[in-house]
Amino acid sequence: MFNKFREKLKGLFTSRKIDEAFFEELEDTLIEGDLGARLTDEIVEVLRKEAKAERAKTVEDLQQIMKRLLDPYVKTASVDLAPGGLNVFMILGVNGVGKTTSIAKMASWYRKGGKKVLLAAADTFRAAAVDQLDIHATRLGMRIVKQSSGSDPGAVVYDALTSALAQGDDLVLADTAGRMHNKENLMRELQKIDKIIAGRGIPAERYRKLLVIDATTGQNGLSQAMLFNSAVHLDGVILTKYDSAAKGGALVQIGQQLGLPILFVGTGERYEDIHPFDKDEFLNALVGLEA
């Protein structure tokens, strides 16, 4: 994952003398990696002080200090379903990030864990989105609740919850629109779905609003998180395209500014190419430490 950024950072740590020029180049590298100018300034300033106070002598000393400084900003959360009844995941994200595919991967992942999963095709704004989720449901042999294109998304979610509660399902994964005629309409539609789910008596501990972000988009990921969080108060993030093209720094900013944990990462096209987020692995890669 994000090998180019990792190798550049690792090369910087190993090839330069630890002096002012080193710290200046480190700042440039971290900003290029989407850590953001303000957070980069804070991290590098503390790194200077910590390296001096701890008399850091080796490359790994510096990398371990930097990993420790970034650790509080990277959040994780359990991917286990809350006990006691139906869990609901409202899945959000702009078009093109792999939202519908991520839903299918999560459905497969939870079913392998013995859970009964129902899909809700609530992105009725795009006929292709309903069709795509329907194809995944057929391939997975999984139930889906859908209506015709242009139907009320809230009604789809309401019907899905009714069906899931009646059938004793463990999890509803609700796809939602990523684009409408304008941003305000989209946010209002998502808020309406949010109210419908809460109104069906799904308690907070069994209801999560999860944003899908393309890990290669950098700062755009942070902007998307801020937008959707302002509308429905997100509970976490799912990353797609978690590979060598991703830089990773924006994820630190999402944790720092919004406190949002990362639950899953998608690493390929197959249903099994999804994994719970590994914080230690991520931080090691971010600072250039060997796995």
From TrEMBL:
GTP binds at residues 93-100, 175-179, 240-243. Its EC number is 3.6.5.4. Residues 261-274 form the SRP54-type proteins GTP-binding domain. It holds the Pfam family SRP54. GO terms for molecular function: GTP binding; GTPase activity; signal recognition particle binding. It is a peripheral membrane protein. Its main location: membrane. Belongs to the GTP-binding SRP family. FtsY subfamily. This is Signal recognition particle receptor FtsY. It comes from Candidatus Aphodenecus pullistercoris.
